[in-house]
Amino acid sequence: MTRRFLFFVLMLPVIAGCAATPGTTEGDTQPFIRVCVAERSTDITLQIGEGSVLETPTKTFSLAGHGVLRCSLEEDGAMTVYMDGKQARRFRGAFRCYSRRPNARFHFEDRSYGDTLLLASDGRGLYLVNILPLESYLKGVVPHEIGRNRTADEIEAVRAQAILARTYALRKIGLPLTRLFDVYDDTRDQVYAGADQGDELASVAVEQTRGRVIAYNGQLAECYYHSTCGGHSEASSLVWKRPQSQPWLVGARDRGAGGDYCRISPSYRWSVEYDRVALEKMLRTFLPVANDAIREEDLPRENWHVLDLNIIKRMPSGRVATLQVVMGNRARQRAYYVHGDNVRKVFRSDDDHPLRSALIDIDITRDRNRWIRRVRIDGGGSGHGVGMCQWGAIGRAREGAEHSHILQAYFPGTQILRLY
């Protein structure tokens, strides 16, 4: 990456303010965030509108009269731009597109994006990055994280979600700038579906909590959230095998006078079953994914079966801390171990996603010769279990808790600060 290109990319969050940016006002001090909305090996196509502009570090080009911009990565690492199917320019590094018209939209695949789009190449692939004001980004994140169409009696949970999403994003923005973007638009960070994908109640919650974050001793707090804790959240050090948990990420019982707050969740309790053939196929595929120390070639290849599944250790919440998988045959057996949240990676749920939670019990059915015939997993909750339980927050809100009390319950010792 050349120095000139690097400077251009790093300055984009600053100079993006020169383009039309819905949701900002003069003197607005909110930061911009860079959201990676696509990673493609060779090709990215945008639908553009009137007033669109293409800008490089040295030149600006009007895209008036054009409707489709396609960027293709060449073998030499350069990017070729085609306008309405005709080759127009070749660039190296990056360029950005924005519109001189307020509230204009670019369209990529089935989503629309406002503000500024950066198209960049690292020489091996193409990236499409949406650069926009943080508060606008949050209006597209909050409804996809806490759930769309929440009701008025749940507004305090939505406010809590807005504060957490803002805190998470600001911590990402504060990382070293030598990256093309700050966050992904999916569950690797926070789900963002582009412009015009907001929700009225969520937008109100974002506006009402504008600039507010959770902090510990005056510093942005490391914060996480998940769908359903199943009745007990867990310490981050145990879930992800870290040396030590932050004092506000220690896990706690999530129960009120009427029972677990997240008992209203569709994932509060669930079951999934596997026959032996499906189970053995899963183990061969996903054991190496769940434990880097297990190589695919380490797994037996012929005349082998899964012989046992044992929960060796549990966390205080009841989640599995260590799972033992025994495979082999009557003559030879070998045990493999999976720890913490990686237990979810070993098994698949009905929709072929990782298991909803590590808060599980395992029930094994065997035939007359003691071979495993079927395994049933009874589980509780959905997600890693660290930080705020979203359905628990909704349950608390329905019972009248304010967002500050909800956040204090899940992140004890933190405070709400207003940064702008």
Summarize the structure.
The chain is an alpha+beta fold and 420 residues long. The protein contains 9 helices and 26 strands. The chain has helices at residues 3-15, 134-146, 155-173, 200-208, 236-239, 276-290, 343-346, 390-398, 403-410, and strands spanning 32-40, 43-47, 52-55, 60-62, 68-73, 79-83, 86-91, 94-99, 106-108, 111-113, 116-121, 126-133, 183-184, 212-216, 219-220, 225-226, 255-256, 259-260, 269-275, 305-314, 320-328, 333-339, 360-366, 372-380, 388-389, 415-418.
Descriptive account of the structure:
The chain has 420 residues and is of the alpha+beta class. The protein has three domains: 3-134, no CATH class; 136-265 and 384-418, no CATH class; 272-380, no CATH class. 22% of the residues lie in helices and 32% in strands. It has nine helices and 26 strands. A seven-stranded mixed β-sheet has the order 4-3-8-11-12-1-13. A four-stranded antiparallel β-sheet has the order 2-5-6-7, with no helix packed on it. The protein has a three-stranded antiparallel β-sheet with strand order 15-14-26. Strand 11 (116-121) and strand 12 form a beta hairpin. The longest helix is centred in the middle third of the chain and has 19 residues, at 155-173. Residues 1-27 have low confidence and may be disordered.
